[in-house]
């Protein structure tokens, strides 16, 4: 019983962190699916989302507004607007001018953008940690007496449910809406979609905007969960999310979700049953193994040779 | 032509050295090397203030073996290249003793020059263990090493009679070094170390680690590393109802941990160097600083004072001004100083440098634990 509780606790820890990887991974996977480039500045967009949400929450608090649902919705909307405009601007400034050149050029441009945004926030907000108020506090507890108690915090539940809801909405949007259909067309063949009258520039911008908006959701949730933000907030998270996207099959949206969850659970099980030192060793070995047997990732489609 | 210029330079150099040697007969020159300008100049001010005060007070009390001390102050800007330049300048001025440098990165290259030239050096501020690990004969310090806090923390934990202890670190030189020292101290005292584990610096999610700590049922957790990670661990541990006591080194003892951990920082234990200016036996000295309008509370003021005093005491005990003899006297003697009783080991480190256990509070203040 004790062991089962411990296992469940580690599983919940893994699923929580995995769903946040998945939310961030969407941004990587959508951009890759459509224009075949890796947007390394995406982790920074997520960090900016967290900062914006914090600024909004602090602003509302000075105005004396403390009704939780209102605070959360306003913070979320502010974060999504700022992050989305940032995602759009990054694409216009750093990626569109170099689109269609050699593969390396957009890649270097993306790394440069990431460094620029990180240092910009360093300058504008200072390099120290800033406290983030814990708006959703408390937890469910299972198991009684002296033994190990399983605890699931409301925040963990919120993160998991929000991720599921966002993923469902996004999948519906991609499969049912007009823009979604255009997105799929562009990802299949950019040149042909253009010939058929789809404004590909607009679709590519939309991809960046959607990815950035989801990153902003993750920024708000994780800012509250961890209780503080700093300018390096997005670096490791971005790296892990990128790994999750590759694991699940880059370009595939359900793949990003699956990859995130697998990575999160693998990490928490390794540090739970082996040692925290082997956490990254195990998750990256897993990545290599999967790519050896399935080079396109778990749910990735094999690249069709275009003639 | 080139040759003659070189010869001339050598001749001038030699005569300057001779002149300096002539002066040294009447007085004892001590080089004081630290940053007067640059980004860490405020620490340099502490160093110069302490050293000047020591020189004044020793001279007022009759000097050393009847001779007066004279400070030769140089600015190394805390820059390793500049440190080498000023070290050479001190060599040319016939200085036989140096109090400095401040930054470990400056002390290291400068000490190579002093050791080669037979100059005794005491650094009042450099804590990098490497400085005294090179088998040098003339290098000393009046400050603790990064690695000295571990045993202090370990002994404190032992004194609390915990059942099981977890030792966590961030896999970096500073954190893992201290954590290893804590673990060894605990094991030698027969305390069970249930976990010894590294985390990744920069990580945000420690829920798996916290769950493991909870499962291991430890009542004490030691963390070797800096505040960003410990702050998050504290916070996540509090959320998961972990009731263990947490402890960390100097690197976690600053106000940023309150920003990150919030309420969870209350009751955290931290090892820090004591406030020497609050010691009762130093009140006379503190008053002397106050008379000059200077503040002795900075971490390097009284360590610099002590460094100058040790040079003077060393010369007295050796009965000669030969730096090698003075170094031997420092290694064999016991000295009463404002920072406590100083005894040196073979490497040139103090046998013990006091670290005090403080309890941290959620408003960023701290109180000593007895």
N-C termini distance of chain A:
59 Å
How are helices and strands ordered from N to C of chain A? HHHHEEEHHHHEHHH
* Tally of helical runs of chain A: 11
Overall mean pLDDT of chain B stands at 87
**Biggest β-sheet of chain B: count, sense, barrel?**
7 strands, mixed
Structural class of chain A: mainly alpha
Instruction: Report low-confidence residues of chain A grouped into runs of 5 or more.
Output: none
Kindly state the number of beta strands of chain A. Answer: 4
Strand content of chain A: under 5%
Residues in helices of chain B, as a percent range:
40-55%
Query: What Rg of chain B do the Cα atoms give?
Result: 23 Å
Largest interface: A-B, 37 and 28 residues
Can you tell me the CATH architecture of chain A?
Orthogonal Bundle
- H/E series of chain B, N to C? HEHEHEHEEHEHEHEHEHEHHHEEEE
Entry keywords:
heterodimer; A: 307 residues; mainly alpha; ABC transporter involved in vitamin B12 uptake, BtuC; two-stranded antiparallel sheet; 4 strands; globular; B: 370 residues; alpha/beta; Rossmann fold; seven-stranded mixed sheet; 12 helices; 44% helix; 19% strand; elongated; Leu_Ile_Val-bd (chain B); Branched chain amino acid ABC transporter substrate-binding protein (chain B)
Structure description:
The complex is a heterodimer of chains A (307) and B (370). Chain A has helices at 2-35, 42-63, 68-95, 104-125, 154-176, 178-188, 190-195, 200-226, 233-248, 253-274, 279-293, and strands at residues 130-131, 139-142, 150-153, 228-229. With 307 residues, chain A is mostly helical. Chain A has one domain (2-143, 155-293): ABC transporter involved in vitamin B12 uptake, BtuC, CATH 1.10.3470. In chain A, strands 1-4 form a two-stranded antiparallel ribbon. Chain A has a two-stranded antiparallel ribbon with strand order 2-3. In chain A, 47% of the residues are buried. The mean pLDDT of chain A is 87. With 370 residues, chain B is of the alpha/beta class. Helices cover 44% and strands 19% of the residues of chain B. Chain B has 12 helices and 14 strands. Chain B has helices spanning 2-24, 41-60, 80-92, 104-117, 149-159, 173-188, 207-216, 227-239, 256-261, 283-291, 301-318, 323-332; strands spanning 27-34, 68-75, 97-100, 120-123, 139-141, 164-169, 192-198, 220-224, 245-248, 269-272, 334-337, 340-343, 356-360, 366-368. A 7-stranded mixed β-sheet of chain B has the order 7-6-8-9-10-13-14, covered by helices on one side. A 5-stranded parallel β-sheet of chain B has the order 2-1-3-4-5, with helices on both faces. In chain B, strands 11-12 form a two-stranded antiparallel sheet. In chain B, strand 3, helix 4 (104-117) and strand 4 form a beta-alpha-beta unit. The longest helix of chain B is centred in the N-terminal third of the chain and has 23 residues, at 2-24. Mean pLDDT of chain B is 87; it is low at 16-24. Chain A binds chain B through residues 6, 9-10, 13-14, 16-17, 128-131, 134, 139, 141, 148-149, 151, 153, 222, 226-228, 230, 232-233, 235-237, 267-268, 271-272, 275-277, 279-280, and chain B through 171, 197-200, 202-205, 207-209, 211-212, 214-215, 228, 231-232, 235, 239-241, 256, 259-262.
